[in-house]
Amino acid sequence: MMTYPMSVGRNFDEILRVIDALQTCDANKIATPADWRPGDEVIIPPSVSDAAAADLFPQGWTTHRPYLRTVKL
């Protein structure tokens, strides 16, 4: 839900981006960073083990920190 005064403009592109991000997160057990667009890298949440990630993302991923792994879908 997005709530803010009617006097503030809406960015329809951002609403579509959020819908794309929500659908992608739900379908792939991932998280999306701020300003994510389809085709950008996504985040593998820490709740997904490396073993589970290997099954979900056989193409591999990049580990930036022990708690931050990214992958291109």
Short overview:
With 73 residues, the protein is an alpha+beta fold.
CATH architecture: 2-Layer Sandwich
Biggest beta-sheet profile: 3 strands, antiparallel
CATH superfamily: Antioxidant, Horf6, Chain A, domain2
Helix and strand run: HEHEE
Mean pLDDT: 93
Q: Enter the CATH topology name.
A: Antioxidant, Horf6, Chain A, domain 2
Helix content: 25-40%
The proportion of strand residues reads 15-25%
| Number of helical stretches of at least 4 residues | 2
Number of domains: 1
Q: What's the total number of strands?
A: 3
Distance between the termini: 27 Å
Structural class: alpha+beta
Give the overall shape, derived from the CA principal axes: elongated
Give start-end ranges of low-pLDDT stretches. Answer: none
Radius of gyration: 15 Å
Name of the CATH class: Alpha Beta
The neighbouring-strand order within the major sheet is 1-3-2
